[in-house]
Amino acid sequence: MNWVTEKFPSLEPRIAWNQPMFTDHGTFIIGFSVAKHHLAIGPERAGIVRFSDEIVQAGYDHTKQLVRIRWDSPVDFSLLEKMIAFNISEKADCSTFWRK
After folding, report:
1. DSSP category for residue 76
2. pLDDT at residue 100 is higher than 90
3. What would the DSSP string read from start to end of 2-61?
4. Taking a C-beta distance cutoff of 8 angstroms, is the pair 27, 94 a contact?
5. Does 56 reside within a domain?
6. Residue pLDDT, tens place only, 1-21
7. Cα-Cα-Cα-Cα dihedral of 93, 96, 99, 100, to 10°?
8. Can you tell me the distance from the alpha carbon of 68 to that of 50, in angstroms, rounded to the nearest whole number?
9. Would residue 62 count as lying in a domain?
10. What total number of domains does the chain contain?
11. For the chain, first and last CA: distance in Å?
12. CATH number of residue 58's parent domain
């Protein structure tokens, strides 16, 4: 969370659905949740589709909505940065919280 705040100071941190997330002009950019075996990162489906190959290359498992980073795996901060930057760019004109 600190890394996101430092790397993207314009994003607004907030808690919603009992999970930390970041928004930009009121639209969802990325969310995080903690599980027993992994950290889950939610960049929305569009982010998963766009970066699916890179997610797999980083050694992470993913579903249609989230990326799972096992606690014993390193965080690929360059991939995380790409996912966040992608959502900021793609949702620059978005007026809703989620993509439609």
Report:
1. -
2. no
3. HHHHHH-TTSEEEEETTEEEEEETTEEEEEEEE-SSEEEEE-HHHHHHHHHHHHHHTT-E
4. yes
5. yes
6. 999 999 999 999 999 999 999
7. -110
8. 16
9. yes
10. 1
11. 26
12. 3.90.1150.200
Mean pLDDT across 27-45: 96
CB 83 within 8 Å of CB 43: yes
Q: Look at residue 98 and tell me if it is in a domain.
A: no
Residue 69 in this model has a pLDDT that exceeds 90: yes
Mean local confidence (pLDDT), 64-75: 96
Q: Amino acid identity, residue 84?
A: I
List strands edge to edge, sheet with 12-16.
12-16, 19-24, 27-34, 38-42, 67-70, 61-62
- Residue in the structure block whose two tokens are 């950290």: 39
Domain that holds residue 70: 2-90
Distance CA 89, CA 100 (A): 16
Domain annotation covers residue 97: no
